[in-house]
Amino acid sequence: MGYSRVVWGMSALLWLIITVLWCVWFGAPAVAVAVTFAILPDIALIGAFAEKGRLKPERVAFYNAMHNALVAVAVLAVGLVIFFLTGGMDGGSWFLGIAGLAWFVHIAADRALNFGRRAPDGSIIPVV
């Protein structure tokens, strides 16, 4: 296992703990958002397989977009800004923050398990 995969795994675990704590604090609606955004990136896999382990080339761009860590971090950052501008722990809007967290945890866990982005032919690019 490469060093990068270990770092992704540690990151996934840290942010999963933070997501769970936020869900405990904000309750069932937050859990629903977290679960939804934790599985959301894999909608790119529905009907996308050309053969075992390889996506159809026309689906690769969508898969890679849904598994782009920078997009998830951007959603998280915007969500945190909105959260603090709308009152923070005193009733701030937490939706985007938890959505970004759960989305990033999914991506980090994928990277830790060696499911990297996809090559143009649909094969997995290993995480090194």
Task: Please describe what this structure looks like.
The structure is a single chain. The protein is mainly alpha-helical and 128 residues long. It has one domain (3-112). Helices cover 61% and strands 4% of the residues. It has helices at residues 3-26, 28-39, 60-66, 69-85, 95-112, and strands spanning 49-51, 54-55. A two-stranded antiparallel ribbon has the order 1-2. The protein is elongated, with a radius of gyration of 16 Å.
Determine the strand fraction and express it as a percent band: under 5%
Order of helices and strands: HHEEHHH
Mean pLDDT: 94
Q: pLDDT under 50 segments (min length 5)?
A: none
Strand order of the largest sheet: 1-2
The secondary structure category is mainly alpha
Shape: elongated
Q: How would a crystallographer describe the biggest sheet?
A: 2 strands, antiparallel
Q: How many extended strands? A: 2
Helical stretch count?
5
The total number of structural domains is 1
End-to-end gap: 8 Å
Gyration radius, in Å: 16 Å
The amount of helix comes to 55-70%
Concise account of the structure shown:
By secondary structure, the protein is mainly alpha-helical. It has helices at 3-26, 28-39, 60-66, 69-85, 95-112, and strands at 49-51, 54-55. It is 61% helix and 4% strand.
Question: Secondary-structure blueprint of this entry?
Answer:
Layout: H1 3-26, H2 28-39, E1 49-51, E2 54-55, H3 60-66, H4 69-85, H5 95-112
